[in-house]
């Protein structure tokens, strides 16, 4: 029996005060019954996790004891009652009296009695049969003189059985049942509220309330301060208002102090707000509060013994907290103080627990926008794509979604398009004004840092940003950056990257645009193409310009009239970035004030003679025409990074000894670079030296002693015959690339590189041997050695237990020797059959990828112990070989994710596969394949959170009978049923030959499309959708691309593409595509839409689908068994061991139930 649900009311709250219930929920249950643990878990979830005040009577009473008068009062004082009807519930006279009293007290209130049928049939409760009948036999004897009592009890049981509630057998586990119950109770106790001063529909508020309720912990008797913080427009005040209206009746004193920042600025004092807080208590004596200090005294005196709910909205100064809320001793037990602010720093300074409010997700944002633009939950027909563009612009900011939606209400498409174009040029005034409040409260220096990040450094790593800003402003910028983070103007993302909300960035751009609306030359920072072109075409640059950043998406040629003399006027320019701009003239002047010079396609052979880069921190000149940077030695103490990649005219690097703080030197593909100045070899702070592709370099310094170096790239230096000796302090080098060099031997000093993790020596054609000390390098994880003069792999390679990736491809042509390539383990093709067994792999326990593609390996070539030794393997590719079977130990590869045996023409049977949470099996074009593994299944552990299984056997026609039935695939489903797929299965895909859709797929269609009607969201019984597609007989081999099999979801005329199983190859005969998506997977895939139909479209000739419910599993098994009987003996599924005809089959159904499609 499922609980009926109702849509939350959106009417205004009553002006009358809501009832002040002592308890939100009264729990009625029989404690001595089997439900005791269940009730304990439910109680904890209600009381502690969801802050629902719940009364649970824990008295241990004898069967038949009568209800106490005190308990009758607790029932009267409860808002709702949950009645847990367990098998022995009716044996307790106490419980039956309690139930009758619950109905007497609450029957007139709608939806306040919620029954749980725990391990009992509702019919037994209604008819008083089963255990209920047994209980009443005893009651009839005990209370034979009180027939009215018995009659009242029976009536109460019939009433409760007739109510919508929860039947425990409808849920796989108690946790799921409890979660559903708590969610329902929470919605009744704390319904979605419409603010009393607004007609706005509250979208996306409930999830925030759940998190905030946990912090409030209303059941606790301590005093709590909670700070809600986030950027402007996120809905902090709205959330606080909802909380206030929802819980204020639990407090003796409740007050909402609105917009403290504005009130404080208007009155110049906080006395006005102190009076608001105290007026309900002091009343006519409020005049005694005449200054802030008097107000503090009265607050402490009047509120310290009262349970108070105080909302202090929109603070921006610490003294506002000190004067209005002080500390916890000002308020009585159980008080709650909620503060909203944009500045997290104020909360931390006052030691207040914080709750950061984030933006809305895509689907909720679309709903909020639609509510304002269309007065409904979804866009009108034809407006979905436009709506999505506005939602994308708002980036989850509720204020922007409301303002934009309201501005478009009842407007036509042309006006929508025009409004969108205008937003790209200038932000909405209301949004801008709201966001700018945070900017206006910053110091001058913080404002400059904020604008610099918005224009030039968004996405920069925080520590590097601090270094640049420190040298830009000659002071520590760390505190300024932290202030911006605390005020929600900056965000630190993954990788310690400094980011900001898109609308905050647009606000910054608008602030600078308003510095000079008509002439860009008088603005401090420039990023817009037209503005930058304007100042160089008209020579209007001025000293006001601090930074220029021009990023063009495609290569663009500057007009010949571009005048680079404008630089001579920009004496305060600190940032100059040009990308994809081709300029024909060379600059004669660059400002010495530059900190960042990033100019790809730099047009000159030299930097201007007058330029002194003493303040420069980063120099990036990719694809430049530079021949050299400067003559001689320059002292550049601020320089950290120098990147000159693909500067193909560059011939030499100057003396760098005057750049002691240089950390990055990247010169890849500087093909004319002949020499590297020896001074770089002693740079103590250099971490990256990248010379890959510098094919003209012939020599290198004889010795390196670079303490900080982590990466040395010499790959492609094809004239380099020797590498330097490594000093004793080079313990930090982790990556060394020597590929494509002419080195003949590896220096013994490489043994000093104790931190080396990645060593690449591919295409070192003169290299004849590997030093055995490599075996001792414990940190080495990746070793790649291909196309060298080494004839065979040295034995120690197979003893390097820490290797995760080993690629060896020797040049041996000797008969019987191993022509082997390692990629993960092995790699290159072998044209002849290899009649050998691979060497023992038992020490390669860390290798994650085994590639033996096209080695023509025969039967027995793969060691039998592979599954016991290479336990870290995740990817195994054995395609293109000649073995018939594979080692059984493969099933022990517990990390395996991909198993590929395609194009193995002699392979007859797949091996057993491991018990992993995710597995992709590819067996295409295996002509001899007739049997799948026993069983080919996933046996994920119960702790696995998700599972995905894909299986492809394209062109394996040995799996199909003459009538087009794929018995092996159906047998796979049979084994899946027999062994049981874990309940966490999220998705599976199967592609294999076949032309018949089983009748179990009740929704079938000839052609390439069908419609699946989805139940309403309130329906909880359906579990997912199973699909089956049959491709057409094509007649001639056809190449199938990865987009061939796809699903499209149509809603209100709009389409969302979903790429399903990706398959590529050639096939002629019909194939089946079978796949399953859970309800949650469907919801996630199409989260942006409120779909009520799914249309499956393909280039196919048949489609099938079925909305999967629990009872469908039994039908699926019947169908599978019936289909397989013609070709296999399944008598064990038809009869039990004693010929009962159903016992084993019934057992199988039980194992299958709730597991195949969960």
From TrEMBL:
Residues 21-189 form the TIR domain. Pfam families: C-JID, LRR_3, NB-ARC, TIR, WHD_ROQ1. GO terms for molecular function: ADP binding; NAD+ nucleosidase activity, cyclic ADP-ribose generating. Keywords: Hydrolase, Leucine-rich repeat, NAD, Plant defense, Repeat. Its EC number is 3.2.2.6. SUPFAM superfamilies: L domain-like, P-loop containing nucleoside triphosphate hydrolases, Toll/Interleukin receptor TIR domain, Winged helix' DNA-binding domain. GO terms for biological process: defense response; signal transduction. It catalyses: NAD(+) + H2O = ADP-D-ribose + nicotinamide + H(+). InterPro entries: Apaf_helical (IPR042197), C-JID (IPR045344), Disease_R_plants (IPR044974), Leu-rich_rpt_3 (IPR011713), LRR_dom_sf (IPR032675), NB-ARC (IPR002182), P-loop_NTPase (IPR027417), TIR_dom (IPR000157). It is an enzyme of class 3 (hydrolase). SMART domains: TIR. This is ADP-ribosyl cyclase/cyclic ADP-ribose hydrolase. It comes from Rubus argutus.
């Amino acid at each position: 029996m499922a609980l009926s649900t109702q849509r939350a009311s959106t009417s205004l709250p009553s002006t009358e005060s809501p009832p002040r219930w002592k308890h939100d929920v009264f729990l009625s249950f029989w404690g001595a019954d089997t439900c005791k643990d269940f009730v304990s878990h439910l109680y904890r979830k209600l009381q502690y996790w969801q802050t629902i005040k719940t009364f649970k009577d824990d008295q241990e009473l004898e069967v038949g004891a009568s209800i106490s008068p005190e308990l009758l009062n607790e029932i009267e004082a409860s808002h709702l009652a949950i009645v847990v009807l367990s098998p022995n519930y009716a044996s307790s006279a106490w419980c039956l009296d309690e139930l009758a009293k619950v109905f007497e007290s609450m029957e007139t209130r709608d939806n306040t009695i919620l029954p749980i049928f725990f391990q009992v049939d509702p019919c037994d409760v209604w008819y008083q049969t089963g255990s209920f009948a047994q209980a009443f036999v005893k009651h009839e004897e005990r209370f034979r003189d009180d027939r009215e009592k018995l009659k009242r009890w029976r009536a109460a049981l019939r009433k409760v059985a007739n109510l919508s509630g929860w039947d425990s057998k409808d849920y796989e586990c108690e946790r799921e049942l409890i979660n559903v119950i708590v969610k329902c109770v929470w919605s009744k106790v704390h319904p979605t509220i419409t603010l009393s001063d607004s007609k706005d529909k509250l979208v996306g508020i409930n999830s925030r309330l759940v998190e905030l309720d946990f912090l409030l912990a209303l059941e606790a008797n301590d005093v709590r301060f909670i700070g809600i913080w986030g950027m402007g427009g996120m809905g902090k005040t709205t959330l606080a208002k909802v909380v206030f209206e929802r819980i204020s009746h639990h407090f003796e004193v409740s007050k909402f102090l609105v917009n403290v920042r504005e009130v404080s600025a208007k009155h110049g004092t906080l006395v006005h707000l102190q009076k608001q807080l105290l007026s309900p208590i002091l009343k006519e004596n409020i005049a005694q509060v005449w200054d802030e200090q008097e107000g503090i005294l009265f607050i402490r005196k009047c509120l310290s013994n009262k349970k108070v709910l105080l909302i202090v909205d929109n603070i921006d100064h610490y003294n506002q907290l000190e004067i209005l809320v002080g500390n916890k001793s000002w308020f009585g037990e159980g008080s709650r103080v909620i503060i909203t602010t944009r500045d997290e720093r104020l909360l931390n300074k006052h030691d207040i627990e914080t709750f950061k409010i984030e933006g809305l997700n895509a689907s909720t944002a679309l709903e909020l926008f639609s509510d304002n633009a269309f007065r409904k939950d979804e866009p009108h027909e034809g407006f979905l794509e436009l709506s999505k563009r506005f939602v994308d612009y708002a980036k989850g900011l509720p204020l922007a979604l409301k303002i934009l939606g309201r501005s478009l209400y009842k407007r036509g498409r042309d006006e929508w398009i025009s409004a969108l174009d205008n937003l790209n040029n200038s932000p909405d005034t209301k949004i801008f004004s709201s966001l700018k409040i945070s900017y206006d409260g910053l110091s001058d220096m913080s404002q400059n840092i904020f604008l610099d990040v918005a224009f030039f450094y968004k996405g920069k790593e925080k520590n590097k940003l601090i270094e640049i800003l420190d040298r830009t402003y000659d002071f520590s910028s760390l505190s300024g950056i932290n202030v911006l983070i605390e005020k929600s103007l900056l965000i630190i993302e993954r990788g310690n990257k400094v980011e900001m909300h898109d609308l905050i960035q647009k606000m910054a751009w608008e602030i600078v645009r308003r510095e000079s609306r008509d002439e860009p030359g008088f603005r401090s920072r420039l990023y817009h193409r037209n503005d930058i072109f304007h100042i160089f075409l008209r020579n209007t640059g001025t000293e006001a310009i601090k930074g220029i950043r021009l990023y063009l998406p495609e290569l663009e040629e500057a007009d010949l009239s571009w005048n680079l003399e404008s630089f001579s006027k920009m004496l305060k320019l600190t940032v100059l970035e040009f990308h994809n701009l081709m300029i024909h003239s060379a600059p004669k002047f660059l400002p010495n004030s530059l900190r960042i010079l990033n100019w790809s396609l730099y047009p000159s052979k030299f930097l201007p003679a007058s330029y002194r880069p003493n303040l420069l921190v980063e120099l990036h000149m990719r694809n430049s025409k530079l021949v050299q940077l400067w003559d001689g030695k320059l002292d550049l103490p601020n320089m950290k990074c120098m990147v000159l990649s693909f500067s193909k005219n560059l011939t030499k690097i100057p003396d760098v000894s005057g750049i002691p703080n240089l950390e990055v030197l990247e010169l890849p593909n500087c093909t004319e670079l002949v020499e590297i100045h020896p001074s770089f070899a002693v740079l103590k702070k250099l971490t990256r030296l990248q010379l890959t592709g510098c094919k003209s370099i012939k020599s290198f310094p004889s010795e390196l002693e670079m303490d900080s170096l982590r990466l040395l790239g010499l790959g492609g230096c094809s004239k380099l015959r020797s590498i330097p000796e490594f000093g004793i302090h080079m313990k930090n080098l982790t990556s060394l690339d020597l590929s494509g060099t002419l080195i003949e031997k590896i220096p013994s000093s490489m043994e000093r590189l104790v931190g080396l993790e990645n060593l690449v020596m591919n295409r070192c054609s003169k290299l004849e041997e590997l030093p055995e000390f490599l075996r001792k390098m414990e940190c080495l994880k990746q070793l790649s050695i291909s196309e060298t003069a080494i004839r065979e792999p040295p034995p120690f390679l197979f003893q390097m237990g820490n290797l995760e990736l080993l690629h060896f491809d020797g040049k041996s042509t000797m008969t019987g020797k191993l022509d082997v390539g390692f990629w993960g383990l092995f790699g290159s093709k072998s044209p002849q059959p290899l009649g050998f067994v691979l060497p023992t792999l038992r020490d390669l326990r860390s290798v994650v990828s085994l590639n033996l593609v096209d080695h023509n390996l025969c039967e027995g070539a793969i060691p039998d112990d592979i599954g016991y030794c290479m336990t870290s393997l995740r990817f195994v590719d054995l395609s293109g070989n000649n073995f018939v079977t594979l080692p059984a130990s493969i099933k022990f590869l517990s990390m395996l994710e991909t198993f590929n045996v395609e194009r193995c023409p002699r392979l007859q049977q797949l091996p057993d596969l491991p018990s992993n949470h995710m597995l992709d099996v590819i067996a295409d074009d295996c002509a001899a394949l007739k049997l799948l593994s026993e069983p080919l299944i996933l046996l994920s552990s119960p702790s696995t959170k998700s599972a995905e299984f894909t299986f492809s056997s394209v062109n394996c026609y040995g799996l199909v009978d003459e009538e087009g039935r794929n018995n092996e695939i159906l047998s796979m489903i049979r084994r899946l049923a027999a062994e049981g797929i874990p309940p966490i299965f999220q998705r599976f895909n199967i592609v294999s030959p076949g032309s018949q859709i089983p009748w179990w797929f009740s929704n079938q269609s000839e052609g390439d499309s069908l419609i699946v009607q989805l139940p309403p969201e309130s329906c909880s019984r359906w579990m997912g959708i199973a699909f089956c597609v049959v491709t057409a007989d094509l007649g001639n081999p056809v190449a199938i691309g990865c987009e061939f099999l796809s699903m499209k979801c149509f809603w209100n005329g709009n389409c969302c593409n979903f790429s399903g199983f990706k398959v590529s190859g050639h096939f002629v005969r019909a194939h089946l595509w079978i796949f399953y998506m859970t309800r949650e997977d469907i919801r996630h895939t199409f989260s942006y839409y409120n779909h009520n139909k799914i249309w499956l479209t393909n280039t196919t000739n048949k489609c099938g689908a079925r909305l999967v419910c629990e009872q469908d599993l039994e039908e699926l098994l019947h169908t599978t068994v019936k289909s397989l009987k013609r070709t296999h003996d399944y008598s064990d599924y038809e009869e039990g061991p004693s010929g009962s005809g159903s016992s084993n089959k019934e057992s199988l159904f039980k194992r299958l139930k709730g597991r195949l499609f969960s």
